[in-house]
Amino acid sequence: MSKNKYLIALCFWMLHISILKAQTLSLDELLDKIKKNHPQLKMFDTDIQSMDAAAEGAKSWMPPQVQAGFFMTPYNPTFWKSDGEFTGMGNFMIGSTQMIPNAKKQRAEYEYMNAMSSLEKENKNYTINQLYAIGKTNYYELMILNKKARKANENLLLLNYMIESMEIRYQYNMDKLPAYYKAKSNYSTLQNMIFMLENGMSQKMILLNTLMVRDKNISFEVDSTYTLVDFEYDLVDTTNLSKNRSDIKAIDKSIKLNQLKIEVEKTKLLPDFGIRYDHMFAFGQTPQQFTFMGMINIPMSWSTKMGKANIKSYQIKNESLQWQKQMVLNEASGMILAMRTELDNLKNQYSIYEKSIIPARRKNYDITLLAWQNNVGELFQVLDAWESLNMAELDLLDKLQQILVTQVEIEKQLEIEK
To answer: Rounded to 5 degrees, what are φ and ψ at 138?
Structure first.
């Protein structure tokens, strides 16, 4: 019976461990959650909907004006009534005036308001690109921290083995105390490093959970796989940058919006039309009367100065935006080329570490360890070889992090989503 209880308890413990095991979060899942949940992007969505809703009212008419009151009525009320051949004087009038909007004005206003949301869409895409870059950078940095932590824990076990072996060998005068204390010091240093790595991992998880807009304390694992990208030099061409970058598209949209605004200002120089109808209820025996008139607002030189000034202002703004576009393209192309050169240099360094430096130091470590185990070598040599190998392996991970971060920065400049 006690054996069955032990098995049941073991099953529950294994189930508990499997539930608590952190779920692996892929990079694609991270980016999808950012795009779906981030409040800044939702703010852009509501702004776009608001602008589209406002555009629907661009072709509305002005409300009619209704008036009522006395018309050509004597102050002396005795003249209001008829008296013999005198038919009476005065009227009570009601009327309405309706301005008829110019179709060209309505069309220009509608096109302008309908295009406003397109600029906001590009601003949203630009923000998505920035958030993706932040997410990918911290994701890769967390991945490197995980790799360093695993390596540190492996080295901790290795040093523990050395220390335990030295404690046994010292009893037989086969090892020296200075080497023992050096190993103990390295062990403590490694423990401190693990604490720092775990703190860095916790901070990265909090930041990534914040980007995904979920509980900041959720623990997860990151995918340890990665892809090193070789960027083609023709991607730096300004034509490709203009097609891909949202900030360039936003400048183009701003230029288009200003041009549409110019068309709106031009239509303000056109005349407006209206109609007016009045009905008079005459006093006394005077017959009832009415008026029906057409109206036109004629733009004159003194009334069009503001519209012409606005047109000139928007034209100058578009010229400024063209220069801004050239500035962004010039800076982006130069930055991408510089980072592309840096990326090639980092890859070459990474390859040298991976193919030459680390294998040589590992071979040196294996030889010194074997010599120490066979009592023909010093532990100091083993520790020195281990420190050299460990430093090279950490440098390799640092190079990998620099490669991935630089790669993300290039993807951000090229606006490559994934």
So the answer is: -70, -30
